[in-house]
Amino acid sequence: MRAQLLAVARGDEKADIVLKNGTVVDVFSAELIKTDVAVCGNKIAGLGTYSGKTEIDCTGRYIAPGLIDAHMHMESSMLLPGELSKVLVQAGTTTIIADPHEAVNVSGTAALDYLLEATEHTLTDVYIMVPSSVPASDSDTNGCGEFTAAMMERYVHHPRILGLGEAMRCYDVINGEKRMADKLDLFAGTNHRIDGHLPGITGKMMQAYRAAGVEDCHESTTAEEAVEKLRSGFAVFIREGSGAKNLHDVLSGLLEANVSLDNCMFCTDDKHTAEIKREGHISTCVRKAIALGVPPVQAYKMGSFQTARFYGLHDKGAVAAGYDADILIMDELDSVQPECVIKSGKVLGGADFSANYNIPVPSPLCDTVHVENIVPERIRVLLNERNSVIGMIPGQLLTESLCEKVYGRDGYFVPDRTFNKVCVFERHNRTHTAAAAPLKGFGIYAGAIATSVSHDAHNIIAAGDNDEDILNAVKCIKEMHGGYAVSANGIITGKLALPVFGLMSAQPCTEVEQTLAAMLREAERLGVKTGIDPFITLSFMALTVIPSLRITDKGLVPVQ
Asked: Bridge partners of 47?
């Protein structure tokens, strides 16, 4: 292969493919260069004047490197990895860095083993970060229990393992807690990275977090946070997903502060496929960055080369000799809409997008929802003079910790449109506990929704304005072995089965999207505001590592 690549590079042999007369986005010189691009096998042989067995006229078109998502959770797509890869690559994302802590929280090493196998031959290249914080906190009841450093050891030298996933137990890191320190030590001093998760923590606590060896963070919601992290030596992953849209606030502030963007990259964290198809994936980040005033080549670097360089993917992220032939061809630079995608030297077409890349799922991974005694008595909330209330913040994963007067009867809280009831049922057959609390800002009326996707322990979480619909939706989740459910006036009006870990479907993307779209319309009919994804938003109400008030099967949890 090397001999042939060099022969093509020298011009002694014809290339397999030549992209003729295109304008290359050069991530090294920050220029737009008119040239040919020669491809040999799965590599780029050279730029210059070349001839090829197949030649594609790119006159007036732009040639850019395939895009890379610096941090995402595949499980949030609700698709198996093979099916997800088809959606991503059509949007121009040819490589992802995935943290499978959702599945590992449910099924431990069996989940990680399956996902490593399932991502071996997908259309996108998938690299994995070993989940660091399973469970996310001591308040959580997950299925796996603790994923220890000893359990991680056998994954350290896997060729697609790039390091330790987001260290969500940030105070354990800061305080040098032994269990977390053992995990950090396992990946320290190697070629691996250690991902971070540091929302709202500043000053000396931030310094201690960085001193522990954590190298990046995707949780900045303001420019002030991002600037402090950059100055402290963190790489800043600017997030634009379905549940959290932080790009505008963070990036516009970074531009105003006139700081370097060389240590900034793009990630989605969690994004639904319907939104990816509608507006793009990392391509959305690049397009929005350009619209905010980031020079186009810099925006493309943030979506490709800078991420590849950070994670040590030395063959990715550039259109240059010796790099992987992961290439986008576009009619316009600013719109970031690939007209053609070349992956590993192959021009992708219809057959590639219709093929099945999934592998069979072991049956135990489809039997993870175990909940009994779904009755009103388990989700009663005592009425106080003022009750603790979770306050939702539109467009953010952050919540408010409120103390408000709510309506009640016979000494118990009665939900309404203003103050819905949110409740969690443990579903891993470990504690058999449940808890409930008032929730403000969700706005559902005459109904309820429930889901077994509930970050990160993934118990069943539900919210509504009456107990009957809440419990009806929870029962539906149990019957489906996981998924989404909507109940209105005691009738299930929408459901989506997600039996794999209680998080993912084995069905084709279009089928999942159509079902979900109908459920979103039903949620809007019940009062959830247009533009708010009620399932993603609700799923984060149990995540005990993001401020400031959450709920688990054990009750309300304040988060600093």
From this structure: 37
